[in-house]
Amino acid sequence: MPHATVHLMRHGEVHNPDGVLYGRLPGFHLSERGYKMADRLGEYFAAQRDAGALITHLVASPLLRAQETAAPTATALGLQIETDERVIEAENHFEGLKVNPRELARPRHWPYLVNPLRPSWGEAYAQQVERVMAAVQQARQTAVERGGPGAEAVIVSHQLPIWSTRLAAEGRRLAHDPRKRECTLTSLTSLTFDDGGRLTGVTYREPAADLLVGASTTPGA
């Protein structure tokens, strides 16, 4: 059994009828389907606890969609949601816009498209990994302090920071094709650690896979 596990959960589907890249904009709450996804994850973690999991710590990004996604898990496990700015969505120049070929062709955007490997349109992938892994290590430590060896923590975050962190954890290049991210709505990217805090494994699950059919695929960043 791993000494500790930290589950990075992506938020549920967002109400976004205009299809914009919502990024860090306020007021983007879950859709009806998104609330169902969040409820499903609450049920999932309750079942895990009943099966013996020591889930002792719950963290969420300050953005509304992450807080709403965390709420059913908090209720199911009797935990408080602890907000951590380090797991917030990535900064993005195109926030609030519909990102399509016509928009990208506007000259005002060209300076932000010069280096997709960083990427130049927003927060560097490496910077995202640094802040998220700092939050993960703190969550790991807090979970163990509260529950002892084998304790688990849940962090509700966003697709790009989670995916960048997974790429780094698996020793892969951070530059990637956004269309190929394996990080669906309310998916779990779980990081396991030994008693020295060293990463020992990465697993991926989709407890709400059946609710993904027809769900929005517009990323936040």
CATH homologous superfamily designation: Phosphoglycerate mutase-like
Main sheet: which strands, in order across? 3-2-4-1-5-6
Q: First CA to last CA: what distance?
A: 35 Å
Q: Look at the helices and sheets and give the structural class.
A: alpha/beta
Q: CATH top level? A: Alpha Beta
Radius of gyration: 17 Å
Q: Indicate the CATH topology.
A: Rossmann fold
InterPro entries: His_Pase_superF_clade-1, His_PPase_superfam, PGM_Phosphatase
Pfam families: His_Phos_1
GO molecular function: hydrolase activity
EC number: 3.1.3.-
Q: What can you see in these coordinates?
A:
Its EC number is 3.1.3.-. Pfam families: His_Phos_1 (PF00300). The chain has 221 residues and is an alpha/beta fold. It has helices spanning 32-50, 64-77, 101-104, 125-147, 159-169, and strands at residues 4-10, 54-60, 81-83, 151-157, 188-193, 199-205. The protein has a six-stranded mixed sheet, sandwiched between helices. Helix 2 links the parallel strand 2 and strand 3. Helix 1 packs parallel to helix 2 (64-77) and helix 4 packs across helix 5 (159-169). The N and C termini lie far apart (35 Å).
